[in-house]
Amino acid sequence: QVQLVESGGGLVQPGGSLRLSCAASGSIGNIYFVNWYWYRQAPGKQRELVATITSGGSANYADSVKDRFTISRDNAKKTVSLQMNSLKPEDTAVYYCSLGRAIWGQGTQVTVSS
Questions:
Q1: DSSP bridge pairs for 36
Q2: Shortest CA distance to 106 belongs to which of 94, 90, 114?
Q3: What DSSP designation does 50 have?
Q4: Is the confidence at residue 26, as pLDDT, over 90?
Q5: Beta strand 10-12 with 108-112: parallel, antiparallel or unpaired?
């Protein structure tokens, strides 16, 4: 059974940075051919796609985080990361990683507040 475990969330002041990580464990098969995703869900709002990294390493971002967030993957370590810079209060949410939109992590809270 494949599991995803996120880490790196927390409380940060506006303008600060956080780095989220997500590690996969279990029998995954060939992770090289699967896209990774980061989603987030703020209180009272729908879950939204934040960033995608394809099997080929191409990254795409929501307009709201473009130029501030960077997604990366390490296939050998079976991990995906999300570097978040210049954080804003509106980035406050629970962040979820997903492997192929089929397997989901438990979520990690990010709070941006002074």
A1: 53, 99
A2: 94
A3: E
A4: no
A5: parallel
